[in-house]
Automatic annotation (TrEMBL):
The keyword ATP-binding does not apply. GO terms for biological process: negative regulation of DNA-templated transcription; regulation of secondary metabolite biosynthetic process. Binds 1 Mn(2+) or Fe(2+) ion per subunit. This is Transcriptional repressor. Keywords: Cytoplasm, DNA-binding, Iron, Metal-binding, Repressor, Transcription, Transcription regulation, Zinc. One of its GO terms (cellular component) is cytoplasm. CDD domains: Fur_like. InterPro entries: FUR, Fur_C, WH-like_DNA-bd_sf, WH_DNA-bd_sf.
Length: 136
């Protein structure tokens, strides 16, 4: 998803445009990977003195609910990134150092389902963590 599509999604869902929201989305648009609320707060504090974690988290969760942002948990902390825009089933490799992500097109559930005969699987999440070539 790009910045203009993200702002359009906000508008179409009935949320008003604010400069802060655009700046938050600009931050994620320029990053190639997952970032924390702390990363975003540092970026936003340069322009918005006194901005609170409450404001940051409220917007992060709104954008996540609207599927503008994707989230994952890494080392016990929630990380966010701009939605990759893939509408087909896929997974991600996530660099533990820089947060860079790469799409994984194959799904291990094809094999795992064979071991769970008789079970009804409703959903799953599969992510691979490690280090990208630049961080390795």
């Amino acid at each position: 998803m790009n910045l203009s599509r993200a702002l359009e999604t906000l508008k179409n869902e009935g949320y008003k445009y604010t400069e802060k929201r655009e700046d938050i989305l600009t931050f994620f648009n320029r990053e190639n990977g997952y970032r924390t609320a702390s990363d975003l707060l540092k970026f936003m504090a340069q322009k918005y003195e006194g901005i609170s974690y409450d404001t940051i988290y409220r917007n992060l969760h709104l954008f996540n609910d609207l599927e503008i942002l994707e989230s994952t948990e890494l080392d016990g902390e929630k990380h966010f990134r701009l939605s990759c825009g893939h509408h087909h089933h896929h997974h991600h490799f996530i660099c533990k150092s820089c947060g860079r992500t790469e799409t994984i097109e194959t799904c291990p559930m094809d094999e795992i389902e064979k071991d769970l005969s008789g079970f009804m699987i409703e959903n799953h999440k599969f992510e691979v963590y490690g280090f990208c070539p630049q961080c390795h």
